[in-house]
Design goal:
This protein has 245 residues and is mainly beta. It has 1 helix and 12 strands; from the N terminus they run αββββββββββββ.
């Protein structure tokens, strides 16, 4: 019996196993994202309830184009009276010019009746640069310009050009925990004292492969309000459970 002839098929099979394994691997996901919700209820001397809904969606076909969107809705009531009712939506399209440099288009929508903002719409575009980028951390800056339409109760819609700037930071603390932080600002060109700054910082930790617990602090500062009775700053401390897909 010719042992070389008998073992030849086995050798071919061993050599082709890595190729077969790679072929069987699922292709990378084009769409990824998460959905989160949180709820709190108290009773006794005061009855309060609050809940939040949020989402993140990313389309990344592993080319130069990256599309991201996110949203957050906050609602709270105390003794059957609404004390917070805020909605923020953001969509962003980035195109990479190099590994660190990108151009972007962004659309922000904000509604906050307690800030007397019936709606605020800010389309913008610009350029960004990732100052620091490793497997664990990313730090980027961006800037550009656009336009804004703001509607307040009892006032005509105010339209203006804008200058925009932003900063993003993310850090992978461990295999199950990550820290993220963002600052986004717009300044109206017709009145630079009229600006809106959004700040957020969050810590998320994995509970299971597809679930996270997220703790987040948000601060929105509107420097010019429609009337003196409206406070400039609104803060929120949010805890939510996140489902990733």
């Amino acid at each position: 019996m010719n042992w070389k002839t008998a073992l030849a098929p086995l050798g071919i099979l061993i050599l082709t196993l890595p190729v077969m394994a790679q072929a069987q691997q699922a292709p990378p996901k084009v769409y990824t994202g998460s959905f989160g919700a949180g709820y709190a209820l108290t009773g006794g001397n005061t009855d309060t309830s609050s809940f939040n809904l949020g989402f993140e969606l990313t389309r990344d076909p592993k080319t130069k184009n990256l599309v991201k969107s996110n949203g957050l809705y906050l609602r709270s009531d105390q003794d059957n009276e609404t004390t917070a009712d805020r909605l923020r939506l953001d969509a962003r399209d980035e195109y990479a010019l190099s590994q660190r440099t990108f151009i972007f288009g962004d659309l922000l929508y904000l509604r906050d009746p307690f800030k007397d903002i019936t709606y605020l719409l800010n389309p913008q575009g610009g350029i960004g640069y990732r100052l620091y980028m490793t497997d664990r951390a990313v730090f980027s800056l961006s800037g550009g310009g656009g336009a804004v339409w703001e509607n307040n109760p009892g006032w005509d819609v105010n339209a203006s050009g804008t200058l925009n700037a932003g900063e993003n930071f993310s850090y992978k603390i461990s295999d199950i925990a990550r820290l993220t932080q963002v600052i986004a600002g717009l300044w109206k060109t017709e009145d630079f004292d009229d600006y809106l700054i959004h700040f957020g910082i969050a810590l998320a930790t994995s509970i299971t492969k597809s679930a996270e617990l997220k703790v987040e602090f948000l601060d929105d500062h509107k420097n010019v309000t429609p009337n003196p009775g409206v406070k400039k700053n609104d803060t929120a401390f949010i805890t939510s459970f996140i489902y990733k897909f």
